[in-house]
Design goal:
It is a single chain. The chain is an alpha+beta fold and 267 residues long. It has a single domain, classed as CNF1/YfiH-like putative cysteine hydrolases (4-Layer Sandwich), CATH 3.60.140. Strands 1-2-3-4-16-8-5 form a 7-stranded mixed beta sheet, covered by helices on one side. A 6-stranded mixed beta sheet has the order 6-7-10-9-11-15. Strands 12-14-13 form a 3-stranded antiparallel beta sheet. The chain starts with a strand and ends in a 6-residue tail after the last strand. The relative contact order is 0.18.
Amino acid sequence: MAESVDRPFNRQDAQFNLLEGWTWVGCYGGYYLQSDLLTDFEHGFFTRQWQGRGPEVLAGYVSAGVSVHRPKQVHSALVLQASAARAEPWPEADGLVSDAGGQSLWVCGADCTPVLIADPVSGRVAACHAGWRGVAGGILLRAIEQLEQVGCQRQSLLLALGPAVSGVRYQVELSVAQRVAASLPAASSLEALEACGAVMPDSEVGRCRLDIRAATRLQLEQAGIPPEQISVCPLCTVSEELLFHSWRRDQVKAVQWSGIVSQQLPV
């Protein structure tokens, strides 16, 4: 059974530092991370210590008796209904929106941002894999629009951005940052990303450092999501080698999973 940890960890668990707004949950299988913003929803951001266990297993640690839904991620901005991603072959997409109760929605990553969305009014949820291509393509905006189509209000949505590569560890071509800037709802320029700290200078000509989570937060705020309803995990997948796989750091295809469970009753 899972148990929230509200005390300092002992020496052998020293890597699990206490984080403001986030809680490490300990259970028989290990620890996973939860956003305090989503405390009323069963969810989890898992670490590399769960390597070898996919959503079919991890779902049991988050909630018993739920169905499992996951896409075949392709770095797109495509968002599907969860019922379309129920079994193999998994459909190509990078986001899922719940369309029934008791669905656990899963995405994976190793530097890209796992984003979990919840509507406390209807109980509907969404899960998105938000790399720079997904953010530039507006994947989160598409997920929000799909939630709105079934009656959700974006002003009520809660969004948690999980562990991902930090800006200082993420060197990209300047054209990448420009594509992300072009996706901002307020038609902002690169200067808007620089002003919020999402884009930082780099010593190489034609390159910069991109904080994809800061850029995502700006995109969401410009789209009408209240700032206090967005929670960003401070952990960097590149820096925290004991906790997370990182493609940037290791060049190895390995991921960690994140999932959330819907609450609404089937229609």
